[in-house]
Amino acid sequence: MKNRRQRHISHQEVDSEGSWAISYGDMVTLLLTFFIIFFTTDKFEMQKSLKLDVLAKQAKMSRDIASVVDQAMFPDKKLQDEVHGRVYQDGQRVIIEFSGVSFFRSGQTELTKQAKASLQKFYDVYAPHMGQYSLGIRSFTDTRKIPHNKYRFQDNLELSALRSISVMRFFQKAGVPLSNMKLSGNGELKLSENDLENIPASDRKPSSVHDLARTAVLVIEPRGDK
């Protein structure tokens, strides 16, 4: 235990784009720690004095990402219902779902106000590190088919791709270079039983399920050109 605490990064460099050259393990842990705090305090204003350097120190106290997630993320069902957010680690990637947010209206590609607010909060965290980490955007549709005589989209796959472009344009206007983003349209999203459990029973009707299927998932991973 003592030896583990003594291990540390001997030096840090600043890359050409202003990002911290910290180890990947520290970076992923830092991001996970922030999103855990962000989602679990969605209804409470975070103290203005909370800085990323404080989070970095907290992250270095634990190299075990799984332990961080198990201990701090969604300690009970009620809290998960309130925050409507999930954070996962998948190998070298960090995946962020906004499972309680409807990003688009039916058959539309324009972001809702709720989606823009969520994406802005994400951007505020991601921006200092975008020199080292790329951003993947995956958008979805609900399972209702596109009426060819009503919309300009050929099918739900095409609609989901255009929705990813809307998310990409939002981040582009915020300051993320196009070269730092990858997008995909993933077509229809069929919510699992676990997803449905996150919807209050009183709202568990077809319209609510369709709303939550119209979403986007964000993926952070190391840039391949670094």
Low-pLDDT segments: 4-18, 42-52, 57-83, 199-208
Named CATH architecture of the domain at 77-222: 2-Layer Sandwich
Q: What is the CATH topology descriptor of the domain at 77-222? A: 60s Ribosomal Protein L30, Chain: A
CATH top level class name of the domain at 77-222? Alpha Beta
Percent helix range: 40-55%
Q: What is the CATH H-level superfamily of the domain at 77-222? A: OmpA-like domain
Largest β-sheet summary: 5 strands, mixed
According to DSSP, the number of beta strands is: 5
Radius of gyration: 19 Å
User: Count of helices?
Assistant: 9
Order of helices and strands: HHHHHEEHEHEHHE
Strand order of the largest sheet: 1-2-5-3-4
Q: Approximately how much beta-strand content do the residues carry?
A: 15-25%
Mean pLDDT across all amino acids: 67
Structural class assignment: alpha+beta
- Mass-distribution shape: elongated
Head-to-tail CA distance between termini: 32 Å
Describe the 3D structure.
The model is unreliable at 4-18, 42-52, 57-83 and 199-208 (pLDDT under 50). The protein has helices spanning 2-6, 24-40, 52-60, 65-72, 77-83, 113-126, 156-174, 193-197, 206-213; strands at 86-90, 93-97, 133-141, 181-188, 216-222. The radius of gyration is 19 Å and the shape is elongated. By secondary structure, the protein is α+β, with helices and mostly antiparallel strands. Strands 1-2-5-3-4 form a five-stranded mixed beta sheet. The chain has a domain at 77-222: OmpA-like domain (60s Ribosomal Protein L30, Chain: A). The two termini are 32 Å apart. It is built from nine helices and five strands.
